[in-house]
Design brief:
CATH superfamily of the largest domain: Ribosomal protein L9, C-terminal domain
Strand order of the largest sheet: 4-7-6-5
Structural class: alpha+beta
Largest sheet: 4 strands, mixed
Oligomer: single chain
CATH class of the largest domain: Alpha Beta
Number of domains: 2
CATH topology of the largest domain: Ribosomal Protein L9, domain 2
Number of strands: 7
Order of helices and strands: EEHEHEHEEE
Helix content: 25-40%
CATH architecture of the largest domain: Roll
C-alpha cells in the first residue's frame, strides 16, 4: 500500500515521503492516527506542489536546526536519579528528564526528538541522539549521578 506521510514517523520516514507499507499497518494505524494519507494521483500532485513551495523554507529550517546543534555543542548534562548500593538506578531515566535538563540550560527541545543510544540502567556517562532535522542529528552527552 502506497501512502504519503503527513508527519515524521520514527523508523518509517519523514513528512511528505512516499512510502510503501503493509495494508494493515496503513489502514489500522497510520490513516486513523492522521499520520498519513493514501497516495493516489491527486494526493501525489498536491504533495509535489507543496514540496516545491516549501523548498526555500526547508533550507531556513535546516539552518536553524544546525544553529541549535552548535549551541548545544559539547555540553555535558547532569541528571540525578535514586540509585542502590551497586549503582543500579531505581525506576528509569527518561528523555523527558533530559529535555528538562536542556531546558534549564536555555535550550528548548521536544522530548520526542531525543533517543538514548543505550538505556541508562546504572549511574554513569551516556549519550543520546537529538534529531533536530532529517539531515541534522546531534549527540548529547549526559551523566546520571546517584542521589540518596
Amino acid at each position: 500500500m502506497e501512502i504519503i506521510l503527513k508527519d515524521d514517523v520514527k523508523g518509517l520516514g519523514y513528512k511528505n515521503d512516499l512510502v510503501v507499507v503493509k495494508p494493515g499497518y496503513g489502514r489500522n494505524y497510520l490513516l486513523p492516527q492522521g499520520l498519513a494519507i493514501v497516495a493516489d494521483k491527486s494526493a501525489k500532485k498536491v504533495v509535489a506542489e507543496n514540496i516545491k513551495q516549501a523548498a526555500h523554507k526547508a533550507e531556513k529550517i535546516k539552518t536553524e536546526a544546525q544553529a541549535m546543534a552548535d549551541r548545544i555543542g559539547d555540553q555535558f548534562i547532569e541528571l540525578t536519579a535514586k540509585v542502590g548500593e551497586t549503582g543500579k538506578i531505581f525506576g528509569r531515566v527518561t528523555t523527558l528528564q533530559l529535555a528538562e535538563a536542556l531546558k534549564n540550560k536555555g535550550i528548548e527541545v521536544d522530548r520526542k526528538r531525543l533517543s538514548f543510544d543505550q538505556e541508562p540502567t546504572v549511574a554513569g556517562d551516556y549519550t543520546a541522539t537529538l534529531s533536530l532535522h532529517k539531515e541534522v542529528k546531534h549527540t548529547v552527552n549526559f551523566r546520571v549521578a546517584g542521589a540518596a
